[in-house]
Design goal:
Jelly Rolls, alpha+beta, single chain, about 25% helix
Length: about 270
Amino acid sequence: MASIPIISSKDPATALVAALERDGCAVVTGVINESTRNAITRELEPHVEEADANAATDRNNKYYSNSAGFYPGHTKRITSLVAKSETFRSFVTHPMMLAACDAILKPNCDSYQLHVGSALVVGPGATMQMLHREDDGYQFFKVPRPNLVLASMWAISDFTAANGATNLVPGSHRWPQGREARADEIASGEMPAGSVLVWMSGTLHGAGANRSDSWRYGVFLSYSLGWLRQEENQYLDVPPELARTLPKQLRDLVGYKMHHGLGFAEIRNVKS
């Protein structure tokens, strides 16, 4: 059976990078403590309460013919986390993630950027999400694609096979176009609360089915090359009036930074 490598947050960043390059995914334990998990839960609580767990999905997405399979019901999805959670901002600039991005993404760009930030609260009865790749939006690259995105799931609650832990296919980041995963090649990203699951953009993955009676709470965070269009429109979710208040490192990661000649704009009164 397939398995996902597990490393400690106390291990050097090179251990995470090596696991990602070899297996396409890894679990890092002990990254965020209970106080931090409680803080982000508290900050997002009103948004989670308002979210519709069975909201209609975009059925016009040409990249996913089965939108119900890509966006299963019984799941609350909250986006625009930079604007909604100060604690999430510390996730975006976490040294572990930036070190991994430096190694995985920087060879293909001068700077990388925040791609998506969302909370995914998967409820009882949620079905298994279809397996997909983070880089499926960039169809003009042939599989296996270059390293375009680095993704992560932060466990606010325990992730188990029963409550919908993310399914991954180790090694699939090197597979050719059209190869499908066998059941024995799919591994469940089980991890205790406080851990972070990290995976390459070419690694097949998808949320698992929640067969338990509890909600599985995770925060999704991904980065992309600085010259790519971000999946989440950060400039609407983090408009200039909010961006002006952010530390420069975070503001740059959101995308308020040029990549060579790309992304110029007239923005007044931004602190350097």
